[in-house]
Write a structure and sequence with these properties.
The longest helix is centred in the middle third of the chain and has 17 residues. The chain is elongated and about 50 Å long. The chain contains three helices and no strands. It has a domain of 40 residues. 61% of the residues lie in helices and 0% in strands. By secondary structure, the chain is mostly helical.
Length: 75
């Protein structure tokens, strides 16, 4: 479902800068920040970097960009 929302110009410009650096669209950047903020509020005992790594892992799972891990074998 899509919805039109009003956001401040400074937020949009900040999102534009971060989006370009992250390879996301402005909408994707704002959605990412929203998911991150929600996850931080829902999990106050976890650090932000850990939550960012978890969100990245979830995205990789959805995109099927994972390789099997072989215990004890260094590559």
């Amino acid at each position: 479902m899509s919805a039109v929302i009003r956001l401040s110009n400074p937020l949009i410009e900040d999102a534009r800068l971060h989006a370009k650096a992250s390879g996301r669209s402005v909408s994707e950047q704002i959605e990412y920040w929203t998911r991150l903020g929600k996850a931080v509020e829902d999990n106050p005992d976890l650090g932000t970097h850990m939550i960012q790594d978890l969100l990245a892992g979830i995205k990789d799972i959805k995109l099927q960009k994972l390789a099997p891990y072989h215990f004890g074998i260094s590559r």
